[in-house]
Each structure stands twice: as structure tokens, then as C-alpha cells.
Amino acid sequence: MGALPTTDRGRITRQRIVAAATEVVAAKGALGASLDEVGALAPASRSQLYHSFEDKADLLRAVAEATNDNVLDAQRPLFAGLDTWAGLTRWADAMVEYQRQRGGRGGCPIANLVGQLGERDDDLRIVLASGFDRWEAQIRACLAAMVTSGELQSDIDVDWLAASTLASLQGGLVLTQARRDPQSLRQALDGALALIHTFRLTS
User: Of 1.10.357.10, 3.40.50.300, 1.10.10.1150, 3.20.170.30, which CATH number belongs to 75-197?
Assistant: First the structure.
């Protein structure tokens, strides 16, 4: 790993490089992105790039970490209310609406990187898997809160239900991306909500 910055200026430069690299990777793909493109967009010199990152693989690790954060931070306002049935349905509706606004393009940024890099670099796969783990944990916390409040049955397996919900979301995103049709995500999440609804104690 490249030297971590010890000054505010260095940290700002590093953040700028990571943000530029994340943008380039999203547009060109991880394998197609070049350090020259990242440097031009940042902007940053080659010496600045190599001061912060050992090589492209090191930079891609930072991109993977930033991608995890970006995806989850974008949902943070929704996660804050993700402890009731109403909050859960708002989250699902927001996921679908975002895909409608994008015309079904883009898919899941974390999953996209897994597809490009997961089989090539096990360290990067683990970083990206941690993003899914964090996402699943938010869903699990919602379901656990609903159990505590009496909205869901006390004997449900929240781990299994959270994993199933995330899997439905990811499958729906893949189909939406392939078909350019957000209805695929709507159907997948409706299926997940229908399953959770079978465990509800309140109407």
C-alpha cells in the first residue's frame, strides 16, 4: 500500500485521486481505466499517484473501498428509517425509483466491480464482499428492530431473511441492467417484501 498521507493537503490529494479513479473505473471499467486518465481527471501528477499508491492494484483497492462507502452512504437517510414496515417499503420504492431515473443503467457498482475483478484478485473480492456484508447488516438490523417492536414474529431467522432480501435486490438489479427495465427490480423486491410480510404480526 502506498504511503498514507500525514497532512491535510496530502489527504485531500489522495481523496481527489480516489474520487477520480472511481469515476474513471465506472466509465471505462477497472481493466480499461488508465493511470493517465485518473491523473488527468484528478488532476494529479504521476509522482503524486505513486506517492499515494504503489500501483494500479493498490489504487483499485481504494476504489473498491470508496465504492462500498458511496453505495451505502447514498442509502443512509433510508437506513435511518429502516426499522418499520413503512421504512422497509420506502427503501424498496427508492431503490426502484433510482433505477427508473437511470433508465435501468448502471446496475450495482459493487457487483459490477466483483464481476470485473473478483475472479482476478482475491483481496479485492474480499473488500467488495465486505460492502455486501455491511448492506446486509443494515437490512438485518431493520428486521431485528421489527421483531423487537412486535411487528414481525419473534422466531424468524433474521439472518436468512436479510440474506434473501439482499439477494433479491442484487438479482433484480442485474436483470434491470440487462433489460434496461426497472420493473425487474420492482418484481424482485416485491417478492422479497411478500416473503417478509408472511411473518408480520400487524397489518
Answer: 1.10.357.10
How far, in Å, CA of 199 to CA of 193, rounded?
10
Rounded to whole angstroms, the Cα distance separating 161 from 143 reads 8
What is the value of pTM for the model shown?
A: 0.91
User: 3-state class of 159 per DSSP?
Assistant: helix
Q: If DSSP states are collapsed to H, E and C, what string results for 114-125?
A: HHHHCCCCHHHH
pLDDT digits (tens, 9 = 90+) for 100-115: 999 999 999 999 999 9
The conformational region for residue 153 under phi > 0 = left, psi -120 to 50 = alpha, else beta, is beta
- Whether the CB-CB separation of 71 and 131 falls below 8 Å is answered with yes
- Tens of pLDDT, residue by residue over 186-198, are 999 999 999 999 9
